[in-house]
Amino acid sequence: MAYMGQKKNPGTKSVPRGVDMDYRHDTELSFDEIAEVLKQVSPEVIEILENRFNILKVVSLMQPIGRRVLSTKVNLTERIIRKEASILKEQGLLEFSLEGMTITDAGSDAIEVLSAFFRKIRGIHELEEKLRKYLNIKRVIIAPNVNDDDVLTLDEVGRKAASYTKKLIDKNKIIGLTGGSTVYTVINQFKSSNRVNDNLMILPARGGLGRKSDYQANTIVEKLAEKLNCPYKLLYTPDWISNEAKETLLKESEIKEIVSMLGNLDILLFGIARADVMAKTRQLDEEEVIDIIEKDAVAEAFGYYFDRNGEIVHEITTIGIELEQLNHVKELIAVAGGVDKAEAIAAVCKINRNLVLVTDEEVAKKILKDI
């Protein structure tokens, strides 16, 4: 390998452009420079590193997990899993028990570093910036696909969203959550805290949703408050009510208090749904479903149905945060994954430029492909 300013031997590859090796002895190399050198000198190291990274990542998402299940999730034989997991255990990154493998704190730290490394190699940062500019929003955070597994990839989206939200919590006081399976996945990625956080307040941003109680806003709020060891309030109203019922419920002091607090949210974490899927989930009457279809609605959020241009084409009567209140939320975080939601995600991102979107790699590529 030739140094800067020296002639190279025929067929010899250069070090990454702009890297002065003499100068670099006493300075830090970037991820790009390290990755490029590893690819040139020992490409098999990248493959080994990626296999071990995938093992750590899947264990962290599914722990405790046995070798057989792990083998199917990372597409490696049980023999290789046994060998690689033993090495990771020796390094203090994994722990073994009768229930299966679990990640250690050191393993979690290693995942964060390796995640940044492979994001650089796969060009995720460039993809994030390209999508951010196209959507014209505050920020885009992309979770790389996990072994072509939709469930694990959605878990990774949840982990990214949880990681971003955790960094904001100390600086903010009131957090709002909508319901839905994606927001539920995000909250699952939070770890329990022993510290009492009396300065925080968790609120449901809307009433109940759907038949599965696990995914209702109240349930998710209670779960996060338990993990963060902080106070919370619950909103005991149906997701879909009549105008008359809404007027009556808003006179109740407790409901009135929560609705008032929703106007002062510091953080709002919400999911995005496809219009057709949400219409079925809510079991809207046939007339409303036809109206939604005829108006080309593609997305739903907060009880509003949006077309491709982000325009409201239909809305249901509900108690919770109103669309105009989003302009006053300091940190507006939309979380959605799955390529089938790409059109819905792009539409909802048009309603507010202060939005932070957390999604997956395939969604990003699909949106940009459809430009």
Please provide a written account of the structure.
The radius of gyration is 24 Å and the shape is globular. The protein starts with 20 loop residues before the first helix and ends with a helix. The protein folds into two domains: 74 residues, Arc Repressor Mutant, subunit A (Orthogonal Bundle), CATH 1.10.10; 246 residues, Rossmann fold, CATH 3.40.50. With 371 residues, it is an alpha/beta fold. A six-stranded parallel β-sheet has the order 3-12-11-6-4-5, sandwiched between helices. Helix 2 packs across helix 3, helix 7 crosses helix 16 and helix 13 packs antiparallel against helix 14.
Briefly, what is this?
The chain is of the alpha/beta class and 371 residues long.
Main attributes?
single chain; 6-stranded parallel sheet; 4-stranded antiparallel sheet; 371 residues; disordered N terminus; Arc Repressor Mutant, subunit A; Rossmann fold
